[in-house]
Predict the structure of catechol O-methyltransferase.
Amino acid sequence: MSNRPHAPPPHIIALDGREVDLLHWMYARSDIKQIRGNPEKVIAAIDEYHDKHNKLMNIGDVKGPTILDIIAQRKPSLMIELGGYVGYSAVLFGNALKAHGGKLLSIEVNPEMAAVANQLVELAGLREHVQIMVGASNVVLEELVREEKQINEVELIFLDHWQKLYLPDLWLLEDLGVIVPGRTMLIADNVIMPGAPDYLEWVKATPDEKKKLLEKADVGGRRPKPELIYETVVPEFDTDFGKDGLAITKVL
Ligand code: SAM
C-alpha cells in the first residue's frame, strides 16, 4: 500500500497501467489522423487493443448494440452513466446521443480513468456531447440533484460501476425523487457475471414484495420508494468473460 498522502483507496487504483498504455498505443498508431474526430474508429481501435493486447472492462461490441438501440428509440436529452472507465461507453453512447442532440454525463470515481476517458472523448470529437465528472456516484448524483438542481428527472441511466453499489444508488435516486413513472429507464450491466443479486431482486419485485424486503434491509439513511412499479427484462449475452446479462428496467 502506498504512503502517498493522497493515495486512492485500493479499489479505485488503476489495474496495472493498461489504461494509460491504451492511450500511448492509440496515439502511436500510423492512422491517428483518420481516427481523430471519428467515434466509430476510436471504438474500433479500443476493441482492437482489447482483442490483441490487454483486456479492458468496456461494455464491448456484444452488449453495446442493445444499449444503442434503446438510445435510438428513447432519444434521451440527458443520459447518465455510473462508472466511465476509459470512456469506451462514453464514446459509443455519446456518438449515438449526438444523432438527436442529446448528452451523456459520465461519473467516474478514479481520476486516472477519467483523464483517459476525457482524452478519448476529445479524440472522438465528442466534447460537446459527453461530460465526465470525477467523484463517487452517490456524492455526485446528490450534488447534481439537491445542490445544483441540474437534474430533476432521470431519463436513461446506465449502472456500470460496482455491482454492490447498484441498489444503494438506485435507492438514492428513488429518495431524490428523480425516478419518474412512465419516463425513467434503468440499464444495469454485469447482472449475471459477476452478478448483482440484490439489485435484480429489487427491480423484479412488486411494491408489496419490496415493502417486505425493506423490513430487513440496511438502507443506510436513504428512503427507497417501494411503491414505484418496475418492469425488468434480462437479455443474456456470450461475452469474452463468459455469460452475462443486462437488466433493462422500465418505470411504469
Ligand atoms: N462503462 C465503462 C465502459 O463500458 O466502457 C466501464 C466501466 S468499468 C466496468 C467500472 C468503472 O466504475 C471503473 O472505472 C471504476 O473506477 C468505476 N467506479 C467504481 N466505483 C465507482 C463509484 N462509486 N462511482 C463512480 N465510478 C465508480
User: Anything to note?
Assistant: Residues 57-251 form a domain with the Rossmann fold fold (CATH 3.40.50.150). The mean pLDDT is 94. Residues 12, 57-59, 81-85, 88-89, 107-110, 113, 136-137, 160-162, 165 surround S-adenosylmethionine (CB under 6 Å).
